[in-house]
Each structure stands twice: as C-alpha cells, then as structure tokens.
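Agenda item 2: magnesium ion complex prediction
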Amino acid sequence: MSVKSITILGATGSIGQSTIDVIKRHPDRFKVHALSGYSRMPELAKAAVDTNANCVVVPSDDAACAFRQAWSSSLPMPEIRVGEQALVATAAENDGEIVMAAIVGIAGLPSVFAAVNAGKRVLLANKESLVAAGSLLMSAVVQHGANLLPIDSEHNAIFQCMPPCSKTLNAIGKAGVKRLVLTASGGPFRRYPLEKLASVTPQQACAHPNWDMGRKISVDSATMLNKGLEVIEAHWLFSMGADEIDVLIHPQSIVHSMVQYTDGSVLAQLGNPDMRTPIAHALGYPERIVAGVDFLDLAAHGKLEFEAVQHERYPCLGLAYAALKDGQGACIALNAANEIAVEAFLQGAIGYLDISRVVEQTLQWQQRTDNSPVNSLADVLALNEAARTFAANCRQTTGSQITGTT
Ligand code: NDP
Ligand code: MG
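Presented output:
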C-alpha cells in the first residue's frame, strides 16, 4: 500500500483537527504535505509538529511571524508560505494527492477550484463553494477528472446510500432514486419559545445539542440556514431538484440522511454524531478504515425521533429553497448575506432574528438588480462582493428597521 500525501486546508478548525486525528491513526496510509491556518497560529504550529507537515500556508507576514514565535519544537520548521496565491498554488500542487477542503465560507472557494482543476481527490467540507458555484464546480470536476467526495455528514450519508454503480461521485447513477431526505437536529432552539428568539445570545446559538463545530456553522445550524445550504449542496452533488430533496427533523442526529427508492425502500446511514466517520470514509474510500469513533449503541439510545420542520421557526430554510429555485445568482446572494449576518450576530452587532431579515432583504436586492449570468469564478466572486456590500449596509440598521439602500 502506497502512502498518500494530504493537504489540509483549514487545518486549525473543527474539521481540520478531526482530519488530523484520523490521519494520525494511519501512518501506514497517510502523510501530511501541507496545512493551512488563518488566525490560530499556535494551533497551526502544534498541528504541524503533530503531523510533521512539509509546509504551512498562512494569510500574511504577521501571521508568519506569529507562526515562527509559536514554534517551540526542536524539529525543523516547515516551509512557510504566505498569502492567497500560495493557498491556491498549494491546493493544486502535485505533492498533495488528497486535499481536505475545510476552510469556512466563501474564502474557501478559490482553493477548492484549484484542487478540482488539478484533478485531485477533493474531500469537500466547504459547502459554501458548492452553494455559490455549484454548476461551475461540478463541470470542473468532470472536465478535470477530479474525485469529489462529500464530507458534510448528510451528503456523505447519501453518497453511502446511493446505488453502487460507480466508484466516483461524479459518475454516480441515480437509477431508481426517488427522493433524498436530509435529517436535521433542529439545533438548540427547536423547542425554544418563538417570542424569546429575538434575544438569544451567540453563546446560546453556538451550543449545538449534538455536534461540536466551528462558530459559523453552529449558528447556521440554529437558524437552519445550514440545512438550506445543504439542500443546495445535495442538488449539485446528486443532480436532484429542489422538490426531490426533503428535510426532516431528527433531534438525536443518529440517522445522518436517507435515500428513498421508487420501490419503497429507504436506505439510511447511521452512526454517532462524530465527523471523523465521514472524514475516514472519504479518506479511505472505497476501503473502510478506523476512525476512532465510538460504535453506535442503539439499545442505549432507546428511541429515535422524527418530526416535520416548523417553517415559521426556521425562515432561513425557506429562503434557501427559494434561492435554489431562483438560480445561481440567488444562491450566491443567500450565502454572502448569511456570512455577513452571522459574523455581525457573533459580534453582537445584530440580533438573532436579524439574520433571516438580512438574508431576505439581500435576496430581494439580488432579484431587483442582478440578471447577469454567472459564467466564471470571477463572476461568482464579483456578485458575492456586491451582495456582501448590500448585506453589510442592511445589517447596520437593526431589527425590523432594516432597509437596504444600494
Ligand atoms: P472552523 O471555524 O472550526 O474552522 C475554519 C477553518 O478555516 C480554520 O482553519 C480557519 O483558520 C480557516 N479560515 C477561516 N477564515 C479563513 C479565511 N478567510 N481564509 C483562509 N482560511 C480561513 O470551521 P469548521 O471546521 O466547523 O467548518 C469548516 C467547513 O466545513 C465549513 O464550510 C463548514 O460549513 C463545513 N462543515 C463543518 C462541519 C463541522 O462539523 N464542523 C460539518 C459539515 C461541514 P483559523 O482557525 O486559523 O482562523
Ligand atoms: Mg451537515
């Protein structure tokens, strides 16, 4: 068995750290080529020591300086690469055979494209890139023969439940597939009084009942904008229409998603809520490898519950379905507005309910102003910037007073 080299983009984050945990269990299979970090240099230095990485990518000279200061090991320091171009070049270079794309947000888009265009096995955690550029990205996967494997637990589950007609996602058939069912925990506010939602804090919103994740995706899970991004992600990964993708609340997060077939069969993938399972699945695919995850004890759980989504509690989910039906421009606006609004909420600048208001206003702006087709990565990034600017203006007027002006 040859040892595969891996580049982990977003190595300091929740997915990055889980990836390192799995890789370290398999020194006979994997070695780390490169790691990227953004603000957490001590964590990046520790990860580089742990994995004996050849190089690290950081955003600025200041970050490089902080990395050097954080290096306390007697091991030789890895090569330090600086800036966005270095990130893109590292994602594409031959030394990393597998690329884990685990940067959060639209910032991950150029490096995802670089890895796909280089024809790599790309383990895609960065769902925002599929939301903002699904059509372009899936075309690039086919054109460059990349092997795109989903890390998002729902999509990894669906991938596992799809017909075994192909070894690669881009060639997967959907013969007999009727619907996809994405499960959702409902987040921390599933039973929270609706009239109190306006005053929930970032800390409450980030306290996910089942998953330990980064702050942005934790807030997205509370609003269920995350599930909306996942509906769009599923649309592109599995070529299913918005009306063929359902969302079902499942508070225990044990059933990670399901595929319904025309003969009435429903296949589901189950497991404890631990991202090391989908990460190990994609790292080892098509083989199964140890993930370090506790095995599921269904008797201990006793019962699994399911319920319909209360849409008035989660307006962001409906906005995401609407954006998917509207087209790529709307999906870009949805994602951009959400990134701005979540950041503002985490900083205490706007309230929880303002997140959906900013997103809705930005979608309306996009419908009013933008009819231009999105044909290139540059088009995606330009519309993303314009939508971010609108959303940032939007969020400066708080609560129900929000009115966009650009
Ligand atoms: P985290 O916030 O924990 O980590 C984000 C990573 O991205 C960190 O390494 C961070 O660096 C880096 N980063 C942040 N901003 C930038 C930037 N502008 N440029 C370059 N790098 C940047 O997020 P998660 O690990 O939770 O999520 C990562 C991705 O995976 C997201 O797209 C998320 O939706 C997806 N995902 C996550 C799941 C989870 O369980 N966590 C589940 C399914 C999908 P630093 O920390 O050094 O600042
Ligand atoms: Mg998910």
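Discussion summary: The chain has 16 helices and eleven strands.
Owner for follow-up: CH.
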